[in-house]
Design goal:
The protein is an alpha/beta fold. The chain has two domains: 128 residues, 3-Layer(aba) Sandwich (Rossmann fold), CATH 3.40.50; 61 residues, no CATH class. 33% of the residues lie in helices and 12% in strands.
């Protein structure tokens, strides 16, 4: 039995996800959602540079919602905080969602945003999972390993650097992720996933934290 998969968006990240789904023997691609008119109606294989799949991309969300699928790989465009409405509809329609857009610890968000996602999961009998570099890739792991042999810790600082000159979408790095920005120019909510990741480790009993 194969997992029936929908690919949501086929940008730089989404296209790689689409290729992985097409190539995986345990997955069956059943739908592709795209934002642009140029990709609508095209075979998913053509978009991913793979052989034809018979699955045509669509811009119609209702078509996606009507499909019978186990999971949606959600690789939507920038401004990830604006995608809740789509994810809520997908979850409520009975489809599990794996998103690369910062849904690592929604249980710490509180308020209406958290409640809407939880209600959608309950209605559809589904789950929401985060993937990708959220809350990070190595920094959190490095801090845990380095401090694991310490008897006392006064301060931990991890500095991450990367060569961004060849990145094809500068807006992703500088606008969405805040590379090069001053700390006071960024929303504190951007960093919620990092302390939440540490708090959720075994033997931690902290139920609330603040980022400021």
């Amino acid at each position: 039995m194969k997992y029936r998969v929908i690919q949501w968006a086929t940008g730089g990240m989404g296209k790689n996800c689409l290729r992985a789904v097409i190539d995986h023997p345990a997955m069956e691609l059943v739908g592709v959602y795209v934002y642009g008119e140029a990709k609508a109606g095209r075979d998913a294989g053509e978009i991913a540079r793979r052989p034809p799949t018979g699955v045509l991309a669509t811009r119609d969300v209702d078509e996606i919602l009507a499909l019978d699928a186990d999971v949606v790989i959600h690789a939507a465009r920038l401004t990830p905080q604006t995608h809740d409405a789509d994810i809520v509809r997908l979850l409520a329609s009975g489809k599990n969602v794996i998103s690369i857009n910062g849904y690592s610890r929604p249980q710490y968000w509180g308020g209406e945003r958290q409640a809407a996602l939880e209600a959608a999961c309950a209605k559809g009998g589904t789950t929401l999972m985060n993937a990708g570099l959220n809350p990070g890739f190595a920094g959190e792991q490095l801090a845990l390993v380095a401090t694991g042999v310490c008897a006392a810790i006064d301060h931990v600082e991890v500095i991450e650097s990367a060569d961004c000159r060849l990145v094809r979408n500068p807006a992703y790095l500088f606008d969405a992720l805040g590379f090069g920005a001053e700390a006071y120019d960024l929303s504190a909510k951007v960093h919620t996933g990092d302390p939440a990741f540490l708090i959720d480790l075994p033997h931690r009993d902290l139920r609330k934290f603040s980022v400021f």
